[in-house]
Design brief:
21% strand, disordered N terminus, LRR_dom_sf, single chain, mainly beta, two-stranded parallel ribbon, Leucine Rich repeat-containing domain protein, 10 strands, elongated, eight-stranded parallel β-sheet, Leucine-rich repeat, LRR (right-handed beta-alpha superhelix)
């Protein structure tokens, strides 16, 4: 490497570590992170990508678990480059507004957790996630309804703190474990829902 190509002190160059199967990164100091094609699990916290999409993150056929916390994502565009993703956790991604790309991994996705990603207003893609087994939605965004649960025959657990605008919790009755935050306009209470694991 020429002197003018050297990375800043404290930067990890992942071009030299391409055989890793699990990586956890936090903040700055990471270069060539998209070169990690053998990853099975990737977790990032406070990572700032240039494109503000999943194009800034590792992807590949082997990636099964992706956890992103407090990253500067605006959309999940690029998720299709990880066609075998099974578990996706999105936490405190305050710029994330568009999750519609999830339909591109609907066949493989088994667990989805969205927590405190307040700019997401459109959850209609959930209707396409028919293979989900675990769904967790936490935050203050209003869900119009939870009719998408009827399209998830494999769902084992559903938990949400989000307000459900139409108040109809009956779709939860078919799920082995369901938990919701009690609200006055709901037609059922959390205690009415199954808690079998």
């Amino acid at each position: 490497m020429r002197e003018d190509e050297q990375q800043p002190f404290g930067t990890v160059d992942y071009a030299r570590l391409q055989n890793l199967s699990e990586v956890v990164v936090e903040g700055k100091g990471h270069s060539n992170i998209t070169n990690l094609k053998k990853l099975r699990s990737f977790q990032a916290s406070d990572y700032r990508g240039v494109n503000k999409t999943l194009a800034d993150y590792p992807s590949g056929d082997l990636l099964e678990h992706l956890s992103l916390t407090s990253c500067n994502l605006r959309s999940l565009d690029g998720i299709e480059k990880s066609p075998n993703i099974k578990d996706l956790e999105l936490t405190y991604n305050r710029s994330l507004a568009d999750i519609s790309a999830l339909y591109k991994v609907a066949d493989s996705l088994r667990a989805l957790s969205v927590e405190a990603c307040g700019k997401i207003q459109d959850f209609s893609v959930l209707h396409a996630l028919t293979n989900l087994e675990h769904l967790h939605l936490d935050g203050s965004t209003h869900l119009p309804d939870i009719s998408f649960l009827a399209n998830m025959p494999r769902l084992k657990t559903f938990a949400t703190t989000m307000p459900i605008a139409d108040g109809d919790l009956r779709p939860c009755l078919a799920i082995p474990y369901a938990s919701v935050r009690n609200r006055k306009h709901h037609n059922l209470k959390d205690s009415d829902l199954s808690k079998r694991l």
